[in-house]
Give the backbone structure.
Amino acid sequence: MSSIDSAFAKARTGDRDAFADWMGSVELPIRLSLRRFVQAVDVEGVVQETLLRMWVLSQDQERVLEGENASLRFALGVARNLARAEARRFGRERLLPPENLPEPAIEPEPTADPGLRRAILECVQKLAAKPLQALRARMQLSSLMADREIAARAGMTLNTFLQNIVRARKQVANCLERKGIALEEAMS
Amino acid sequence: MSDRDLDVLIEAAVTPYRERDVEGRVTPPPAWWDLSPEAREELYRRQIVTRVIEKAFDAEGWSGTVRAVMRRIG
């Protein structure tokens, strides 16, 4: 049994932490599978909705998923259908890829790379004060509240807050490049 | 729009925070509607990189997306 199947099987018992582990393994593959829908839909929203539906499915004991990485394969199908439905809801069908286009090959996410994590943290620590403050605040609060609210808590206007995040992102990317890591290429 | 303004507009849509409509459906952030198709390509790239940075930063190794979903399922 793959680690993805194992985490999903554990999640089916109602174990939320196991479901979080499962999400950690499939989030990137799901996101990469939506590459063709980027112009038509809000990919982040589709990814979140897909994961939520997979949680609901995981708690339905009558549903059985069979085969290696069945939960990932099922989630990719859910994501694709949601993306098409969202595009239709927003009247953006013209931006959809053709239905008969072959599906891209999607591999499960590799296990966590401690070297990459260490490099990212080192680069974040080197940020100037304001970009670091903005980035930290967003990392800690962005799943809970909108940027406007996070900015207010950080004592910044929304525009200044976002400019600081942009600055932080560029500085981290430059720092990683100096370490020989092109984050975007590594993930695509 | 200047490159700087476009940068900020794209950044405003990178967040994993999503409002829901009255039917409970996820709605895109306001900035998303103002992005051109090309800018949405850049948004997609930034979201991928951001989620990796979030995972590195998070004590439990969760991205903002995972954390947002965990908050929903309680």
Notes: The mean pLDDT of chain A is 90. Residues 141 and 150 of chain A are 7 Å apart (CA to CA). Chain A has nine helices and no strands. The radius of gyration of chain A is 19 Å.
